[in-house]
Amino acid sequence: MFETFAKAIQSLSVALMMGLPIASSAQQLSDNASIVVESPWARASLRTSRPGGAYLTVRNEGSDPISLIGLRAEISGMASIHETRTNSDGVSSMAPANDIMIPAGGMIALEPGGYHAMLMQLQSPLVEGETFSLTLLFSDGTELEITVPIVGIGARGPEG
Ligand SMILES: [Cu+2]
């Protein structure tokens, strides 16, 4: 009886030392397959002195809520999630957004006039017809790299 208990403790500490997940729910949480990114697009930019904006939809097909907590892009020295708000006078302003929670089975849209990926300190202009890679960071440690097509400067959606 005691021996079995001691063995169980021993294998538990081995698992801890090796950094192996002990609870199966921890494995499910870091499963990328439950996060689906759709319709990414960005507007072409005239100059690198102006920030670029990118838009997309994220669906959470998992059974746990997950939060989009940040962004990373080689093309940008400073990529972050912004939110555009329009006040009662019709004046729009934008500010960095906090973590965006996506409920299980839910989705969020980054679209003009709302949440968007703000790409500051552009290393090169966003040229129509080209693409760049953008990494989405999630609360469970998942990092999802996607390819963003660049459409025309006056585009309102992925189709231009
Ligand atoms: Cu912005």
Automatic annotation (TrEMBL):
<dbReference type="InterPro" id="IPR007410">
    <property type="entry name" value="LpqE-like"/>
</dbReference>
<dbReference type="InterPro" id="IPR036182">
    <property type="entry name" value="PCuAC_sf"/>
</dbReference>
<dbReference type="InterPro" id="IPR058248">
    <property type="entry name" value="Lxx211020-like"/>
</dbReference>
<dbReference type="Pfam" id="PF04314">
    <property type="entry name" value="PCuAC"/>
</dbReference>
<keyword id="KW-0732">Signal</keyword>
<feature type="signal peptide">
    <location>
        <begin position="1"/>
        <end position="26"/>
    </location>
</feature>
<keyword id="KW-0614">Plasmid</keyword>
<protein>
    <submittedName>
        <fullName>Copper chaperone PCu(A)C</fullName>
    </submittedName>
</protein>
